[in-house]
Amino acid sequence: MNLARVFSGLLVVLALLVAAPVHSAVRTMDKIDKLPEKDDEAELWERARSHEERLVRIGTLVSHPDLERYLNALADRMLGDFLDHLGVELRFVVVEEPTLNAWAYPYGTIGIHTGLMVRMDNEAQLAAIVSHEISHFLQRHTYREMLSEGRQGLFGKGLGLLASAAVATQTGSFDPGVGDFAGDLWYNLSTSGYSQKNEYVADEEGLMLMAKAGLARDEAIPAFEKLAENEVYGAGDPRQMWSSHPRLEDRIRNLEKEIKREKRRKDYVEGLVPEAIDYYRAIAPAYLVTARLDLREGQFDRAREGLTRYQIARPGDPEGYFLMGEAFRREHPLGPDFDEAVSAYGMALEKNARYADAYRELGMAYRIQGRVEEARSAFERYLQLAGSAPDAGIVRGYLEGLQ
Amino acid sequence: MKTLITLITAICMGASSAALAAEKYDPYRIDKREFRKSFETIALAPVEAGTALGMPEAAKQMIEEEITRHLEKRGHTVIPSSVLKEIRQTMVEQVGGLEDPATGELDMEKVQAVHSHSMRELWYRHDFDALATVRVQVTQAPAENDKAEWDGTSQKIRKKGGSLKYTANVAASTLTFSVFDATEQPIYINYGGLEVLMMRVKEQFQPLDSSEYFQDEKRIRKAAQLALKPI
């Protein structure tokens, strides 16, 4: 079946769903030949771009070409050449942030946190979230929301909080002042969501995009349920808000209803639940990035969960084992039990006998336990391998203290 | 011109800051009872201040005295900051100084190494439950009609000129007192306003000369008391 025809039909149905008077002014993408269509939409894009640039400047948006390529390939399977006539390219930016969040800029850039990628169990679950955000873009929901009476005055907080959270990641402190910089952009993004109607539209269109890629729509339910996991962040942390994506429970119920309805159709085709291990391999760098962030935040269980997946994906890489050791060590830095940390450092050395940091940490653990000879041997090996490391002098000091 | 711009900016920002200040703040990241029960012995890190403030050692000492007095009164045992300071000093020597010998600039990898190892060494050598850090830095204090109010304190900000009705944000110093557990996670963070760093002279705000900072012992001690008040 021609993909463009599928989308034409789909978008007509969706246009009817969002047929509030103000929304009727915004035509669906199959009805227009360029984006942005109007001056005020172009202005909205500019303002959103300045927010994205700001995140790049403060070093939060770090390019991960492999991850971005993977996300692009996934989006291609869902969209095909649908956007070609508009001259707009869908693009992904991967944000190093341990929380679960994704959002759509109005010009087709989808932001996604590594924390969200690693918490999904398989590609279908990731697709559920990504397709939802793609739908916000396809439906020009930001622009619709901007035009929607009563919501204009609230625009800006959403992006402000994103920027603030980004600063919090960098500095360890929440800076509400960053919100001022973001200006009056839009309120209802990933923090508070779009209007209920637009969220439902994106949920339902997301399911159709998943089907288009041959993925099991049932996986959308656990994917959305996982968004609640941001609750691990304490009260007062702005990132906790992402766990209360508006009416999350309502939307999960709506998705369940929609999936049931789809299943009653005679032409319903059950999609695939792709192999988890393929997913782990595809997003492997995200596990390491997020584990380091989780360690910094004291989220040791989360770090270990992600690192276990990383070890499955890349069993030969010592770094996954070293960081696993760090997760055990940092949770109980003074012991009394060092077995798990020591074992993980040992595994890192099995993979690469020249992995210097693992020797240093073994030395530190043995020193606390009073295992002097083992500590000496580990420190000496560290200094052989990393004699010019910034902390080499300190480790020499430990070694002298062992006499 | 610069000060006029400061005044205008300050006035524009006043309202939103006042709204933020009105929110109730809970300094505890864990249950308050657990704080008292599980964190009996607290080690102090040396008081740090932004370099622009040029905080004298005597002022740092006053803050540490207040903190120690308060914590001991509440039944905690305190390990003085001199212990960590000595460990740090030894490590700085072990890494051959923190500056890059070629450029004379701080070598951030060495700074990080000394920071991380000194904290671990403190935990290794001493039996304590939590580490407290103190940092004095510049903040924005909301002001209304010549009175700035921030982080539990207030101060008159008119040096010269008749009375004016306005709202503004002025530069001020504030003290942040944070307590971390063994996994380096914060269990308590609170603030105590110290003093304003600018005053109104007629229709402009003028920054104070740095020699005027930290002259008021009462304000210095009060900042520490405010930050520790909920404990």
Order of H and E elements of chain A? HHHEEEHHHHHHHHHHHHHHHH
Global outline of chain A: elongated
Tell me the fraction of residues in β-strands of chain A, as a range.
under 5%
* Total of DSSP H or I helical runs spanning 4+ residues of chain A: 19
Q: Mind telling me the C-alpha Rg of chain A?
A: 24 Å
* Unreliable stretches of chain B: 1-22
Structural class of chain A: mainly alpha
- Our Rg estimate of chain B from Cα atoms comes to 20 Å
Q: Characterize the biggest β-sheet of chain A.
A: 3 strands, mixed
Overall pLDDT level of chain B: 88
Q: Helix share of residues of chain B? A: 25-40%
Largest beta-sheet details of chain B = 8 strands, mixed
Query: What's the number of helices of chain B?
Result: 6
The greatest interface between two protein chains, and residues involved on each side, is: A-B, 23 and 25 residues
Strand residue content of chain B: 25-35%
Total strands of chain A:
3
What is the multimeric organization of the chains shown? heterodimer
Uncertain segments of chain A are 1-24, 149-192
* Approximate shape of chain B: globular
Key phrases:
heterodimer, A: 403 residues, mainly alpha, Serine Threonine Protein Phosphatase 5, Tetratricopeptide repeat, 2 domains, three-stranded mixed β-sheet, 19 helices, 3% strand, elongated, disordered N terminus, B: 231 residues, alpha/beta, eight-stranded mixed β-sheet, 6 helices, 38% helix
Describe this entry's structure for a reader:
The complex is a heterodimer of chains A (403) and B (231). In chain A, a hairpin with a 4-residue loop joins strand 2 and strand 3 (109-113). Chain A is built from 19 helices and three strands. Chain A has two domains: 3-263, no CATH class; 277-401, Serine Threonine Protein Phosphatase 5, Tetratricopeptide repeat (Alpha Horseshoe). With 403 residues, chain A is mainly alpha-helical. With 231 residues, chain B is of the alpha/beta class. Helix content of chain B is 38%, strand content 29%. In chain B, helix 3 (57-73) runs parallel beside helix 6 (217-228). Chain B has six helices and eleven strands. Chain B starts with a helix and ends with a helix. Chain B has helices at residues 2-21, 32-38, 57-73, 81-94, 108-125, 217-228, and strands spanning 41-44, 48-49, 77-79, 130-144, 147-150, 153-156, 158-160, 167-180, 186-196, 198-201, 204-207. The interface between A and B is medium-sized, with 23 and 25 residues.
